[in-house]
Amino acid sequence: MQAEGAQIFDLTAGEPDFPPPPAAEAAGIAAIEQGKGRYTAAAGMMPLRKAVAAQLERNWGLPYRPQEVVITNGAKIAIAQALLALVDPGDEVLIPIPCWTSYPEMVKLAAGVAVEVPCLSNHLPDLAALEAARTERTVAILLNTPSNPTGVVYPEACLRELGEWALRHGIRIISDEIYAALTYGEAKHVSPLAILPELRKTSVWIGGMSKTYAMTGWRMGFLAAAPEVAKAVATVQSQLSGSPNAISQLASLAAIEQADEDVARMDLAFASRAKLISEKLSAMPGIRCELPQGAFYAWLDVSAFFGKQDPATKRTVTSGDDLADILLEADRVASIGGSAFGDSRCLRFSFATGEEVLTEAMKRLAARLAALQSSPG
Ligand SMILES: Cc1ncc(COP(=O)(O)O)c(C=O)c1O
Hints:
alpha/beta; Aspartate Aminotransferase, domain 1; Aspartate Aminotransferase, domain 2; 2 domains; seven-stranded mixed sheet; 12 strands; 40% helix; binds pyridoxal-5'-phosphate
């Protein structure tokens, strides 16, 4: 549609709409000019491993040693490689849903079985349901806080309960904390691996540059784990993706050391958009939307509109995906239907876009929902 000249109000982005920190760009350019684009150690260059370890301790109370940090070509491959290292064929990995699209597929690629367990209505993991889904073959659980797609930040009490349960049953936590720096209002990120240090013996922490530093295309992620786990992941990496991008490693080092202010500015902008989008959404009849606590997504249940026929497109809404299609076709508003995240009653809006686009998209959504509400069905 864009290629045909249509203006699309795009709320699908999984990446910040800000530029990377100037310090990162300058360090990347200098690295190229100085001919630093060569292979590094498979687990990444030591200065960056040290900087990530120091940041983990400083920001999240996670005292990992540099040798326990593996630098990867993005958080995505960090998770995939951790699964390849830790999951044997037929092993089961629990995944609270809704979840980030790639988790179940990555478990399958590692020849594991992805066991999807619906969250509670407040989008927090349902411990009773997880316990019911646990079997002899359960080896790990994939957690993601702050959450993509729900924007929920798991409270400490919830993580403690989950962590104690995981320890009791020898279940590893693969803790995807890629949105840790982006929290709003009262919400504060806390790592389960900081609450229960015992978990660090078997579990894996995941982070990266994409979201915090707006460096998605630089492909830089991190993993931290006990030495034998970190070593196993580094071995997988050395055979699979190879040493991480050297230029991006040097740029990331500069960002971690110099870009705290850029990150704080971006966090403030996201906080203001989180407020804006949740105020607009809560004013729409039939929609319940909490203030997103972290990441940059609003997740809404649109099942109140199921069975309604849209007067413009003549389509009947039977899922969040239908509504996403209608919004795109009739209103030029792009969102992502919830089935991509394991819950087809919902829709995900990203607020990684300017306030003008957000405001116009919300105006169009409100008008569409009003039209649906007054239609038959
Ligand atoms: C929850 C979650 N984890 C991991 C990633 C992967 O990030 P990266 O760009 O570092 O591979 C994403 C990206 O969308 C994400 O949303």
